[in-house]
Amino acid sequence: MPDNSTYTTGPPGICPDYRPVTTVDAIRQYIGSNPVVAFDFEASPHEPYRAEKDAALDPAKAHITGCSFSVSTRTGIYVPIAHRTGPNIDADAFFQFLTAFLMDRTIIKIVHNIAYESAMAYALGIVIQAPVYDTICAVQMTLKSPFDFRRLSDSGLKHLAEELCGEPLPSFATVTGGKHFDELDGTAPETVHYGAADSDFALRLYHICNAWFDRYLPRHRYIVEEIESPTAVYLGIMKCNGIPVDLPLMRERKAEAEATIARIRQEIAFITGDVNIGANCSTQAFKNYLYKDLGLPVFKTTGSDREAADDMTMTLLKEWCDANRPELSRLFTLVQEYRKWGKIKSTYIDGYLKHLNTATGRIHPDLFALSTDTGRMNCRNPNAQNMPRKTNDPIGVRNFIKAPDGHLILSLDFSQIELRVGAFYCRDEVMMETYRKNGDIHAATTSVIFGVSYEEAQDKHSENYKERRTIAKNVNFGTFYGLFPRGLQRTLKFKAGVEKSVSECEEILTNLKSGYKGLTSWQEETKAAAARRMYSETWLGRRRYLPDIKSFDWGKRSFAERCALNTPIQGTAADILKLAITRILCGLPERPWLKPILQIHDELTFIIPEDKLPEAVAFVRACMEEQPFSEFDLPLIAEASAGASFGMMEELED
């Protein structure tokens, strides 16, 4: 099993050779014909933002102050560009060189956290091109302990320099003494050492990680080089572009939400009296009112064996009151409305307003490509991937995202990507044939589980069409992950509003397995393989360790088995999306008008000029629908929609 003993560095105690250079010729002389070059930016805030915390990390508020390069370990050069003290390189000449360097498709460009460098470069109109290698991605794809990959929180360069190379690096505060970086002399030894060390240690990590990959997980090296590092460049571009918003509409909806919340709170108080319900109707006082004062039954408890008050509990209590104490039913309807509006205000109005950038007037979320076990991307500050569905969006949160005048928001979404990947894995002929003929998988599943013809399953006028299709959709989205009858019953009830008994759900799943013969065998083989190896992986080799798959605790083992089924499908779907992103990245320099702004699950979103719509759709769709790897033998479909705001998107005809 891999361990940290494989991490090695060069001879300790040897002073590094770091030096300043102030001409492009000197940079070229140092780099020479080396095909592998590490680089790093140092930045400082623009004048209006000098007092603002972290402004140097914002490409809209900062400028590149210096740049370092390293082509061999323990060496490096630092190039002062915009220091207020000491000599600087000619900026125009340097940025002309930098543009050519960053877009050179023959040089492997190494950075620790390339998303930041990408954002700063993109603000100058430069799209960094592969080959690239992000060492912060690489270290997260290596094991820190026998079953745990390193997390982002312990992947900082200074932490890794000391842990893996045995050489502590000085902190930014120690070097700058409270000043901005451009206030330091760009050729002073301390400045040069701090700047050049970042590139040197990134280069060292490149060699350390690749040695580890080559010995233990070669396929992870491929993922880092071909998928994760280019994706990180794309994340930086999205971060730089930001999400345009309709600020007047947001303020209008804020007032509306506050008024609605106040009204609902008064209605609840009319029923409960002076009980403190807090911001979410989950206070202990409210629970005491429900279970002690009213004497309502306890349907669910928390992990600490206390009475629950979550949304499912409120639904169960309302159903019980409908039958037994109808005078209380209204309370639970109000509670759920109160919670819904509270979340809308705190998450989608106050939460978005809090993160408005004062320089751009846009939201620039933090985007992460390796913060989930399956490789799916996520987002925070704010979580712009978690907008309400159109069918449950009473104030039009999606309309907060609005294109500038003369522009459109364009989204392309993989159609049923996880179901297609699942069909590819289990090799079920019915599923595969449905997708090869561009058929309706929900109709196919309706046919399988209810014993009706495919034609009848598609007929919107047939008896029970709506309910059967709703059930088929919910079954499909859990098909590959090991559905159980009771789990299906809960899903249908709380997500689809369909009541089915456990025995009916058991019959549905029995019919499903009989109709999709490849499904059960794939599930059993996949769980057995994961139990033998104690890990699951995607088609391209992204690994997830599952030590609990051999646990004697049924709950832990069952969860691990679900992860064993989930990882190949959800993870491979994530890899396919990231491969599409790498192709889009290659085409961005020729399409400077195509502005990536957001990624939501299986969807990519852009801002484009109105007159570029056909060209943009054709390009992005081609990148997404291209065969992701040679073995994948099912068609991929990317569905396009566009509109002036995210809430007014209309699907585009092919």
Secondary-structure blueprint of this entry?
Elements: E1 17-20, H1 24-31, E2 36-45, E3 62-70, E4 75-80, H2 91-102, E5 108-111, H3 114-122, E6 132-134, H4 135-140, E7 143-145, E8 148-149, H5 157-165, H6 172-176, H7 189-216, H8 218-241, E9 243-244, H9 247-272, H10 284-293, H11 311-324, H12 329-354, E10 362-363, E11 366-368, E12 378-380, E13 407-414, H13 417-426, H14 429-436, H15 441-450, H16 454-458, H17 465-479, H18 485-495, H19 502-515, H20 517-533, E14 535-537, E15 543-545, H21 554-587, E16 595-600, E17 603-609, H22 613-625, E18 638-643, E19 650-651
Parallel strand pairs: 1-4, 2-5, 5-6
Antiparallel strand pairs: 2-3, 3-4, 7-8, 9-10, 11-12, 13-17, 13-18, 14-15, 16-17, 18-19
Helix pairs in contact: 3-8, 5-7, 7-8, 8-21, 9-12, 11-12, 13-21, 15-17, 15-19, 17-18, 18-19, 19-20, 20-21, 21-22
How do the strands of the widest beta sheet line up side by side?
Answer: 1-4-3-2-5-6
Oligomer: single chain
The proportion of residues in beta strands is 5-15%
Radius of gyration: 28 Å
Rounded to the nearest angstrom, the distance between the terminal CA atoms is 50 Å
Average predicted confidence as pLDDT: 93
Low-confidence stretches: 1-11
Helix proportion: 40-55%
Number of helices: 22
Total DSSP E strands: 19
The biggest beta sheet reads: 6 strands, mixed
Outline type: globular
What report would you give on this structure?
Residues 1-11 have low confidence and may be disordered. The protein has 22 helices and 19 strands. The chain is of the alpha+beta class and 654 residues long. The strands form 6 sheets. The chain has a 6-stranded mixed sheet, sandwiched between helices. It has a 5-stranded antiparallel sheet with strand order 16-17-13-18-19. Strands 7-8 form a two-stranded antiparallel ribbon. The relative contact order is 0.09. 48% of the residues lie in helices and 13% in strands. α3 (114-122) packs parallel to α8 and α7 packs across α8. It is globular and about 80 Å long.
